[in-house]
Design goal:
This is PucR C-terminal helix-turn-helix domain-containing protein. It comes from Candidatus Enterococcus willemsii. The chain is of the alpha+beta class. The protein has three domains: 54 residues, no CATH class; 147 residues, Reverse transcriptase/Diguanylate cyclase domain (Alpha-Beta Plaits, 2-Layer Sandwich), CATH 3.30.70.270; 64 residues. 49% of the residues lie in helices and 17% in strands. The chain is built from twelve helices and nine strands. It starts with a helix and ends with a helix. 32% of the residues are buried.
Length: 286
């Protein structure tokens, strides 16, 4: 059942990024979220049914062994003192007993991975530290296609943005989960999503200025020189030569700043969806 279906049956249930230890609630993993359903008004038969469902969908790895679990799902400080980190959400049809083997394989493929744990049999969270060797969303899609062939499964993933260690990762993950959920609801074909792909659909219905995630990105990404270049690029439909002429800069200087920005953020300003994301942030928060 989809999240919308559960909400129609239990309209008083609440949606959360993590499960609950409160025994007065059932905590059901649904899609990429957890639905908390109070036991107070449930019949005996409903409680038996939900008890069965929660047992069937319990986490397959002990999250107490994973230091990033507390940072992501309990609002605690990230277990580091420097650096930048991103979260990759992965959904599965099912891995069954192969989850440990899959985890070991993904660690060997992504050497900057600092944590990997399953919330349920069908939801996995990866936390990756920034390095110059990290893969783009397009490259990660290829990695997961290969893994799907090796493990006979089907994955879809959302590649998050790198944030400084001192940000509130619980809030950031929740917003990225909402983006992921919106995309997999409306886009049934694509395998891999990132913020650049998802921003238009999601923020057509949500206020950018209210987003903690978007405000963090604006704070982390932009310096004075790149702001002017992004605005000029947008006004010139991404044409670098026209941008350089407008700014009285050499074309190579503009290209150097674009490449420098891409290296730091993994955003390619030659892609219109990435350029739009940056322009939207500047126009909202400048």
């Amino acid at each position: 059942m989809k999240l919308h279906d559960w909400q129609q049956i239990y309209p008083e249930a609440t949606i959360h990024a993590h499960a609950t230890d409160d025994t007065s609630f059932f905590s059901l993993p649904v899609e990429t979220n957890f639905l908390w359903i109070s036991k107070e008004n449930l019949s005996a038969s409903e409680q038996r049914l939900l008890t069965t469902l929660t047992k069937e969908q319990k986490p397959v790895i002990s999250n107490s062994k994973h230091p990033w679990y507390s940072a992501l799902f309990q609002g605690k400080q990230a277990p580091v003192t420097n650096g930048r980190y991103r979260i990759i959400q992965v959904t599965f049809q099912s891995l069954g007993t192969l989850s440990d083997s899959w985890s070991e394989e993904i660690k060997s493929l992504l050497p900057a991975l600092v944590d990997c744990f399953f919330l349920t049999e069908t939801i996995c969270i990866l936390v990756e530290a920034y390095s110059e060797q990290v893969l783009s969303a397009e490259e990660l899609e290829g990695v997961f296609l290969a893994l799907d062939g090796d493990f006979d499964t089907y994955t879809r993933l959302f590649v998050g943005v790198f944030y400084p260690y001192d940000r509130e990762f619980t809030r950031l993950l929740q917003e990225e989960k909402e983006l992921f959920q919106t995309e997999i609801t409306y886009n049934k074909q694509a395998k891999c999503f990132d913020l650049g792909q998802s921003v238009i659909r999601f923020f057509a219905e949500h206020a950018v200025s209210d987003s903690y995630m978007m405000r963090c990105l604006y704070t982390n990404w932009f310096e004075d020189d790149i702001v002017a270049i992004i605005i000029a690029l947008w006004n010139n439909q991404g044409n670098i030569s026209s941008t350089a002429k407008e700014l009285f800069m050499h074309r190579n200087t503009v290209q150097y700043q674009i490449d420098k920005f891409q290296k730091r953020t993994l955003l390619n300003l030659k892609k219109m969806n990435h350029l739009f994301l940056c322009y939207l942030l500047i126009m909202t928060f400048e």
